[in-house]
Design a protein that fits this description.
Elements: E1 2-5, E2 11-15, E3 18-22, E4 37-41, H1 52-61, E5 66-68, H2 71-74, E6 88-91, E7 94-99, E8 117-120, E9 124-126, E10 140-144, H3 152-162, E11 166-170, H4 177-193, E12 197-198, E13 206-208
Parallel strand pairs: 3-4, 4-5, 9-10, 10-11, 11-12
Antiparallel strand pairs: 1-2, 1-13, 2-3, 6-7, 7-8, 8-9
Length: 209
């Protein structure tokens, strides 16, 4: 499995030459569609996770691609599938299990929209914009670290609760260079305390498992 991080919250996962794309949003400027994409997961409707132009590009090169997303996004993508919580789906080389339902609140007790997380091949967990616990202890956790809806302590607490093998940061486009240094220092501290490996994966970099 090869994981490639793009700007902000976009990832691709490659297995046996086939690709799963997660959250190709408007901030993920270095992401470009290829012709070997089997599936796309869009965790929710916000534009930093869902760029309709990128979905159109993916579908034009991959007519049989399967898109999994929430009901609101599915209304904008013909034939998109809306998975249930804890549903397991196999697409090509990818075994997906979905979890969570609500986007984390920005205003207390107000849920902005639906949000789905996904576990890929029992290895990688990606919660989207939430701290919903995945159904398994993942080997790798893609961790949101900066947003109007989170405090860094919440990201640290999530690490302690999930205890994955490795963590790399996502949802970080709002951080300046100084802000990233400060935020990552706290995330690194939480990883050390939980005996979790922190990987500072930058846009365009790959992690092979």
């Amino acid at each position: 499995m090869k994981i490639t991080k793009y700007e902000h919250s976009c990832l691709s996962v490659e297995v046996d030459g086939r690709i799963l794309v997660i959250d190709p949003g408007v901030f993920s400027t270095s992401f470009t569609a290829s012709d070997n994409i089997d599936a796309v997961v869009v965790t929710h409707e916000h534009p930093d996770h869902f760029d309709p132009e990128k979905i159109t590009q993916i579908r034009s090169l991959n007519p049989n691609v399967v898109v999994f997303t929430t009901d609101k996004v599915a209304q904008q993508i013909p034939d998109a599938k809306v998975p249930n919580v804890d549903e397991k789906v196999a697409v090509g080389s990818f075994d997906l299990q979905f979890f969570g339902h609500d986007h984390a609140p920005i205003i207390p007790d107000v849920v902005p929209c639906d949000n789905i997380g996904v576990v890929v091949n029992g290895v990688l967990a990606y919660p989207g914009d939430s701290f919903a616990p995945p159904p398994i202890k993942p080997q790798i956790l893609a961790l949101p670290v900066s947003a109007p809806w989170l405090k860094v302590y919440e990201s640290m607490k999530y690490i302690a609760e999930i205890k994955p093998g490795k963590v790399f940061p996502t949802h970080n486009a709002l951080l300046s260079e100084i802000g990233q240094d400060i935020t990552y220092a706290w995330i690194h501290k939480a990883c050390d305390e939980a005996s979790v490996e922190f990987i500072d994966l930058q846009p365009g970099q790959e992690l092979t498992i």
